[in-house]
Amino acid sequence: MDENDGVHRSKTGGDAIVASTSSSTLVESGKMENSVTAKNREASRGDGATNLTEHLLSIQEVATKYAVSIDTTDPAKSFGLTEIEAAKRLKENGPNALSPHKKRNAFLRYLDVLLGLFNVMLLVSGIASYILLAINFVGNFQNTYLGAILILVAFLNAGIEFYQQEKSAAILESFLNLIPSQCLVIREAHTHKINSKELVLGDLVVIRSGAKIPADLRIAGATDLQLDNSSLTGESDPQKRVVDGNGCSNPLEASNLAFNGALVVVGNGYGIVIRTGDHTVIGQIASLTATEDRRSSPMTTEIEHFVKIIAIIASIVAVVFFGVAIAVKGQSVSNALNFGIGTFVGFVPEGLPATVTMLLSIAAARMAKKQVLCKDLQGVETLGAVTLIATDKTGTLTRSQMTAAYIWTGLRVYFAQTLVPGSADAELCAPYDVEASDATREIAYAAALNTTAKFASTDGPISASQILGDATEAGLLRFAAAKLDDLEAIQAAFPKVFEIPFNSTNKWALSIHAKKHASGSLVLYLKGAPERVLALCDTFHDGDTAKPLTADFRTRFEDMYALFASKGHRALAFAYLPLLESAFPASFAFAKEPPNYPTHGLTFLGLVSLEDPPKHGVREAVGRAREAGIKVIMVTGDHPLTAEAIARKINIMIADTRRNVARKSGVAEADVPEEDVHAVVVSGDGIDALSEREWETLLRKEEVIFARTSPKQKLEIVKRAQGLGHIVGVTGDGVNDAPALKKADLGIAMNISGSDVSKEAAAMILIDDNFPSTISGIEEGRLIFQNLKKSIQYTLTHIMPEVWPNLLYIIVPLPLPLSPILILVVDLGFELCIALSYAYDVSENPEGLMKLMPRKPVTKESVARLKAQQDMLRRNYVPIGDAQSQEGTILMTRWSWFRYLLFRFFSKQFWLGLFAKTENEVLIDGDVVSYALLEAGTLQTVGCLVCYFFAMWWHSGVSPRDAVAHANEWGNPGNWYLSAGRNVTGATQLEALSYGQSAFYLALMFQQCFNHFVCKARLSYPVGDFMFRNWHSFLGVFIGSGLSLLIVYAPPLNLAFRTNWRLTPLVWVVALAFGIALYGYAFVRVAVKKRVAPAKYTEDVEGLQMFPTQWSAAAGVGA
User: Fold this and answer.
1) Are the C-beta atoms of residues 157 and 354 closer than 8 Å to each other?
2) What phi and psi, each to the nearest 5 degrees, are found at residue 6?
3) Whether residue 552 lies in the annotated active site
4) DSSP run (H or E) holding 472
5) Disulfide: which of 10, 321, 862, 1086 matches 16 by Cβ 3.0-4.6 Å?
6) Confidence of residue 1028 (pLDDT cuts 50, 70, 90)
7) What is the pLDDT of residues 1051-1064, one digit of tens each?
8) Is 402 exposed, middle or buried (0-12, 13-18, 19+ CB in 10 A)?
9) What does the buried/exposed string (b/e) look like for 449-475 if buried means 16 or more CB atoms within 10 Å of the residue's CB?
10) What whole-number distance in Å separates Cα of residue 23 and Cα of residue 297?
């Protein structure tokens, strides 16, 4: 059974108890309260996005509803609200800001960490030590140190983890709200600049190009106003906004509403505030994150599971042998309790929590250098465990920057960026050269002159310069600026004398410029929808001259148009007309109404395709993820064709969809067998209707794209994937991604382009917005998992040499070979120093690391096991209450829940599941336990005991037989005996024991130094360059061994730890011999493992394109 079978208290459910498996959840019925505030619940009657009605009202009706004075003919002359009324509404409704997540008191957060099971075990042991001290102060004086150290370690463990959590939270807060948002508002007939938090319902906001919409607005005035709504909808195209609207009933698609967070791409206008703060659409989406809980990370679950097992075993052994010590061996209660505490302490690897936390902290620091910020330390390892990445498109995989790609002009196809030699585009296209022909020059002039966009600044490279204007205009302007020598000089030389902006009726934009030619002084340029532009043309430019349009040309036009569309590009056509001086002299006064400009008889210049290109390195990053066995799916609000076109460029989709398979096979789509379809594109319209079986079939496909999705649907996709056992990573930057980011096992937000809501919901932030950093993080996560496993294997090995001395103390009996205080010195001394060095280990096989199978792969067998487990729960425990609460959630009564915990151990299914062979690799698995506790642990115990007996014999003449015969009264003043004619007094016995304990302690240290290097090799033999590249290993061994030698040989420390500085170095030789034997055994063990259980690697994915896209190759070259 998976370690995910655990218990935790629901954050959203108050007293609700949740028992989670990786596919199902049991929840106690009762207080299942949504965490939305009372204010939001009251507002939900009319403030949700679905309840917006202002787009259906006239602007005058909206003004009346919100009691604001507005001039509908000229909003700039409006009176707006009075300052008194605005202040009153601000007091009544609160500031225009999203409510921050409620934070628990820092002290309570620290207590949460301190009261973890591991720390509680240490605290109980420490308190028990002081109870013994109170019973017998002289005899248990050493417990003064023991109890203090145990309690201190618990507080230190909690302190380290708490500090790291607070440090990550502080870094996140530094990213949020760096600069207070300002906006322009009309109040009392004057325009004021105010903090956006001070906006109130009914305020009249002035909208300017380049600004962000500060609240939900009803448009009251607009001039060429276009908004970028991608953070809300995922739609990359700018959306036009008008006063009268488009009559759409869905407010999210209404053209007379502007939502909080949208960016004003071009134009200006005015809007009445209709929603503020939590009541805005962005606030409603953000509230979804408050009702979602992130599952515990795989590592957290596994460590908790291991700690529970250790706690149970340690408690049972300690209690049983405590009873044996009293009843059978006649020990006093004080001695028996001391033994019980020693046994308990021996089982508990005290340094493990600190080791794990510090290893993760070191890895997190390394990832920060790679521009990946981890808010949660567990996220470092979770990233390495992901089996599915659900990624947004716009701004995550693509640049969110329209860029010119293909140019078809003069009957030739050119490529605007740098061509990659040998690529399909290199065979189809020629590099674009503005001087290649008259046609190539004129189309560049058309892009430069017929534009409403402009550079905000000319500093820096063209590709990075901000442009004021919509995305399409910006892409064309960048293209022109990159290809023409001096854009500003050209625009100044050929000034615009007249223009008709693009509108939805004409679907073209026209401009006339003072540009002399052979027959006049004016030139008309026109661009727009290809079919509309071609309809206005009589001739086409063949590169040299204008020729009449022919049927052959129209066929070639259609072919090129179809080619660009198939690639998901936006195609625009260009035409021009040199105006005759006789008809249109330089002083001609053009007018829009009635139109006196020519719109027919133009010369067709060509087509330009634009796309939102993939970011640098995305294709290779996705390919590496897929080679690592990770499923990468695209979840976007964009059009399905656009999404598929981008996906095929970046390795997300390689195989044919059902439509393509049907076309190639010559059969109907309905006749294509399901097993022949490996790639699927699903539109949001069909997601809600999917059955559970269809979801399972869909997510089992190799390549999946979800397009036109809503925030709720993105959340559903994450839940469904988790329901199949996937460890889900979600990347996104928009508000619409926030619920999915919060629910995912690891939400990854963008820093630069990401919204505050998405950053708050995510567990990890890409500081540079670079998706390939995610793959670097996965590699780092896999490496830290391997290193953690090595470190834990090394740390656990000393448990048996610590436990057996306490057991032999009662069973044989023996004078105690290792005292509890020395056990702590082992765990928190040299062991901690050496264990931490694993954080810096390199991979055994760097190329093979990303070819290893995910450690919890999702297969047919794993899904079947999860379904069987879920069916067992449903059969035995009848669900009550609302069955539609969450996917995979079963509501239970408290009695049913305890019945489940109590009786599950007596079910056949439980034990079959517990010992079922799975593909999963857990942090502490059978291989680790077998090596640490049975194999190496036993060998080290033997080595330590040999050194223990050797030291007692060498220094004091005490034989093993003598030690066993007189163990019960060892060291008591009256316990003396004759050995080889020599009187061995109690004082001599204590001195012999100090030699023996010192030898045992040093023998464990020396053997662990060898074990440290043995544990470095999990997949190969313990030889090779990787064994010695980590200089921290040698530093750890040096510090750890130095500390151990000081404890034994430095006289001031002897008093506290009862060691003996006269111990002979011959003991070292014996210990080193056992260390060498352990190293030799490791070679035999690896050879057996390679034959019996070889490492599993992923299969190669056919068709991956592991070379840069044109955009990667052309980075910084006008793109």
Assistant:
1) yes
2) -145, -175
3) no
4) helix 471-483
5) 10
6) confident
7) 887 777 888 999 99
8) buried
9) bbbbbebeeeeeebbebebbbbbbbbb
10) 14
Contact 1022, 956 (CB under 8 A): no
Question: pLDDT category, 29, cuts 50, 70, 90?
Answer: very low
For 1036, counting Cβ atoms within 10 Å of its Cβ (0-12 exposed, 13-18 middle, 19+ buried), the class is: buried
User: How many other β-carbons are positioned within 10 Å of the β-carbon of residue 1086?
Assistant: 17
455: Cβ contacts below 8 Å, ≥ 6 apart: 465, 466, 467, 468, 477, 481
Q: Output the six-digit token pair for 13.
A: 């459910």
Which DSSP letter does residue 54 get?
A: G
CA distance 55 to 254: 7
CB 783 within 8 A of CB 852: no
**Can you tell me the distance from the alpha carbon of 560 to that of 577, in angstroms, rounded to the nearest whole number?**
23
State the Cα angle at 285 between 282 and 289, rounded to 5°. Answer: 130
Type of residue at 249: S
- Binning pLDDT at 50, 70 and 90, where does residue 1012 land? very high
Q: Are 1119 and 417 in contact (CB under 8 A)?
A: yes
Beta strands 412-415; 430-431: pairing state: parallel
Contacts of 550 (CB under 8 A, 6+ apart): none
Q: What is the DSSP string of 725-755?
A: T--EEEEE-SGGGHHHHHHSSEEEEESSS--
Write down the residue that tokens 């109907």 correspond to: 668
Residues 6+ apart with CB under 8 A from 870: 21, 23, 24, 888
Query: Is residue 1033 classed as helix, strand or coil in its secondary structure?
Result: helix
Q: Which helix (H) or strand (E) element contains residue 186?
A: strand 182-187
pLDDT band of residue 1110 (cuts 50, 70, 90) is: low
Measured between its terminal Cα atoms, the distance across the chain in Å is: 52
446 Rama class: left (phi>0) / alpha (psi -120 to 50) / beta: alpha
Closest to 215 in 3D by CA, of 265, 283, 280, 267:
280
Q: Which two tokens stand for residue 322?
A: 């405590």
CA dist 951 and 1020 (Å) reads 37
Q: Return the ∠ at Cα 986 (arms to 984 and 987), rounded to 5°.
A: 95
Q: Report, in this order, helix, strand and coil percent for the chain, each rounded to 5.
A: 50, 15, 35
Find the largest Cα–Cα distance for the chain: 137
Burial class (CB in 10 A: 0-12, 13-18, 19+), 917: exposed
pTM score of the predicted model: 0.73
Q: What amino acid is encoded at 1025 in this protein?
A: D
Structure token digits, residue 649: 């460029």
Residue 635 DSSP label: E
Residue-wise DSSP of 609-630: EEE-PBPTTHHHHHHHHHHTT-
Rounded CA-CA distance 730/739 in Å is 10
Helices 986-1014 and 1031-1049 pack at an angle, to 10 degrees, of 180
Per the CB < 8 A criterion, the answer to whether 60 and 78 are in contact is: no
Which of the following is catalytic: 228, 392, 656, 737? 392
Question: How much is the CA Rg of the chain, to the nearest whole Å?
Answer: 37
Residue ranges of alpha helices (H) inside 486-599 are 487-493, 530-535, 551-566
Question: Identity (one letter) of the amino acid at 743?
Answer: K
Distance set, CA 40 to CA 33, 49, 258 (Å) = 13, 13, 21
pLDDT at 293: 62
Q: pLDDT tens for residues 982-995?
A: 777 878 888 899 99
- If you ran DSSP here, which 8-state letter would residue 115 be given? T
Query: What totals of helices (H) and strands (E) does the chain contain, helices first?
Result: 42, 33
**Strand ranges for 877-963 from DSSP E:** 889-892
CB 318 within 8 A of CB 340: yes
